[in-house]
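Q: What would this complex look like in 3D?
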Amino acid sequence: AKAQGRNRFNFFTPSMQEYAHFRMHLIQDLRLALERQEFSLFFQPIVELKSGDIHKAEVLLRWQHETRGYVSPADFIPVAEETGLILEIGAWVLEQAARQSKEWQQKHERIVQLSINKSPIQFRDEGEYFSRWMSLLKELQLGPGGICVEITEGLLLDAATGVSDKLLAYRDAGIQVALDDFGTGYSSLAYLKKFDIDYLKIDQSFIRNLVDDSSDHSLCEAIIVMAHKLGMKVIAEGVESEDQRELLRAMGCDYAQGYLFSRPMSAAEFEQEFLLDAKA
Ligand code: C2E
Ligand code: CA
Ligand code: CA
Ligand code: CA
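A: Here is my prediction, written as structure tokens for the whole assembly.
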């Protein structure tokens, strides 16, 4: 990048300058977001297809800034990763989720497994945050299966992350592991055998045209068969229609998540909708 520095200047258009400016402010606001308590967790139910029961939810981070309004994680997570802020933010998410899981367990006497997204950066660098979170889990005594961690495929190919040791530590602590966005990364099937993974989440890009596109249909079918043979359960992401749900259920897919069932919602709404009604 250094060698390119001067050439790059030629490409620096006003819109790029605006973007750099925008980005700088975004970073500043992101730095303050934690202390200003602008983050919150949303929850989206993960439905067991056979029974319709809900015993799981994915935790999705939300940022509400006083002037920006709602900022999408798709926009701020990459920036948080590049700046390293994801370590602190991610630690906050992990702690809040663990406490929420405990609260619901105590209040409703049932386990809602909370599935948390973990950035690859967290795996590489978190160090002290990791051990602190592990002691919190021990202290809370969530019991096995109270927490699931969602990681992405690329991470498993990167030998330097110490991911293997961490996954073992998870196992010991009763934390389950899901492989997120399955099928979109650098797929090497070897790691599925090598690592102890509990769930494959089929990316929503394969679900979108599932009903009309025969290759997506075959792909999903093959993923489900393979996952089951390897002792994993399958979660389909982005399920929006009744037809998709029916097809996935017929294929033997274990769980589904998507707008068909519910949008992500606040803890209070989730509790009202799925825990107090005892629908599941
Ligand atoms: P993801 O992990 O793949 O999360 C699923 C995304 O799909 C969520 O977007 C969710 O709101 C959306 N979604 C759920 N059902 C449907 C559906 O039926 N149709 C469609 N089109 N979309 C659906 P969201 O909440 O905007 O999050 C975007 C991404 O941001 C997540 O993708 C995840 O990669 C990242 N993210 C969110 N929260 C966290 C977090 O706490 N930590 C980290 N590291 N990343 C997070
Ligand atoms: Ca996810
Ligand atoms: Ca996903
Ligand atoms: Ca994604």
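A: To summarize the key features: Residues 150 and 221 are 22 Å apart (CA to CA). Strands lie at 39-48, 54-65, 69-71, 113-117, 147-152, 176-182, 199-202, 233-236, 255-256, 265-266.
Q: Very helpful, thank you.
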